[in-house]
Amino acid sequence: MGLFTDAYDFFCIPPIMKLIGRMYYEDRPEPNKYEIPTGVVALMVSTTLLGTAIGQVVFGRLGDRKGRRSVYGVALMLMVLSSTGCGFSICRTRNCVLLSLGFFRFLLGLGIGGDYPLSATIMSEFANRKTRGSFIAGVFSMQGFGILASSAVTMVVCKIFWIASRNLNQDHTPEDADISWRLILMLGAIPAALTYYWRMMMPETARYTALVENNVLQAAKDMEKVLDVSMSQIAEDEPWPQDRPTYPLLSRKFFRRHGRDLFSCSLNWFLLDIVFYSSNLFQSQIYSQFLKLNDKDNVYKAAFKIARFQAIVAVCSTIPGYYFTVYFIDRVGRRKIQIMGFLFMGIVYFALGIPYHYWGQNTNGGFLFLYALTFFFANFGPNTTTFIVPAELFPARFRSTCHGISGAMGKIGALIGSLGVLWASNKKDYDRSMTIALVALGAVCLLGMVVTYVFTPETMGRSLEENENEGEDEEEDNEKRFFRCFAGANGRLNSSEAIAL
């Protein structure tokens, strides 16, 4: 539900910007009436993405220092409060509303950023190696339903206000429109708030308790709850060392062991988010000819059309792409799926961008089909795998930190890509600028395929400890003891079964 709420909060913004434009920019001269200035749109997008990048690094590090569970609750509560704050946005004058909304969207980004590394790390540390990929992908797939929910809520709210304003003057935006967008934003707090109790009742992951806190007894108690195995069946073969050797984050030893993996995860996520967020957040700019927006539409009808388009794309391509990954991730492997996704995304963006002038002059289903494929192969590809792989490659004491660093690089890429597409969509020579933008996105995808092929290791079917690549270090021997402590001589779990779990 954390990832569900993340997607809801991120992708409800395009129709909301249309509502805000109709509400606060009625006084702009033609032909820019109702259009929010490019700089304001860039500010709204940038604040959330920047907050997310900071939140991923900060909460990721706190997850390794203070524990996954407690920090997880803080991130969720921040999401709830900031979603509610976005809806209130303090005042009614244009500048004040936009500044207030930008501030609360930044705080919302911090909470969303915290949810990414902690959700992935917790799921990876609870899952077994045979189905770990499917479980993490299943968590991430809730983004698709979050996008669908944001579109559905927007359509329902707009339809209700639309019906309530039957005698609406097409040339004037009613005061009630100011309530509609606030309501859509505040409803995003509900699913997050409903899950807070269960997050707090969830035990700390046994890997963190044993490998980072060196508290094997507590880890065994937590595993007793999770696996439904009694304490009498959980025995420790060897005493756990209290002075476990370690090396600090960003040390020479860290870079020698994990620098290549951190580089690979960060760069792949950076490249993927350049493409994914620019296409998602600015669908109405790239595919404007299919939305048929015009100034004769009332305020609710315009937002309804954008939300409906997002919902159709989510149902037809986004959600199926996620569940193809859930099914194939532990059969085909992360690396192959990521390479395939980047390759097909690149091909489709070239097919969209090179003949963009033709597509703009001839509205047909072919363009929409290709557009849907970009989201299908993003989600049955790098958008999901870049979330999974960082949660599997790094040692327990660095896991959420490295996931947060990788994700933060992704959000920087999202910021660059979003501003680039926004710039292109506002050029006078629209067709030419959009051709350049879409072809550039295709080239970015092909670069991501090359980076994956050269640098990204396969993590399928291996335990987290194997993926750490600790070599013959004494530290690795200590981590193997973590598994043996759950394998009693007379218990149901033998050593091989415990390691598999």
Automatic annotation (TrEMBL):
Matches recorded under Pfam families: Sugar_tr
TM stretches of this protein: 36-59, 71-90, 102-123, 135-164, 179-198, 302-325, 337-356, 368-389, 401-424, 436-455
Gene Ontology annotations of biological process type: arbuscular mycorrhizal association; cellular response to nutrient levels; phosphate ion transport
UniProt entry tagged with the keyword 4Fe-4S: no
MF-aspect GO terms: symporter activity
Domain Major facilitator superfamily (MFS) profile: 1-460
GO cellular component, one term: membrane
Keywords: Membrane, Phosphate transport, Symport, Transmembrane, Transmembrane helix, Transport
Subcellular location per the Swiss-Prot or TrEMBL entry: Membrane
Membrane topology, from the record: Multi-pass membrane protein
Alphabetized PANTHER family for the sequence: SOLUTE CARRIER FAMILY 22 MEMBER
Family note: Belongs to the major facilitator superfamily. Phosphate:H(+) symporter (TC 2.A.1.9) family.
Name of the protein in question: Major facilitator superfamily (MFS) profile domain-containing protein
Taxonomy of the source species: Eukaryota, Viridiplantae, Streptophyta, Embryophyta, Tracheophyta
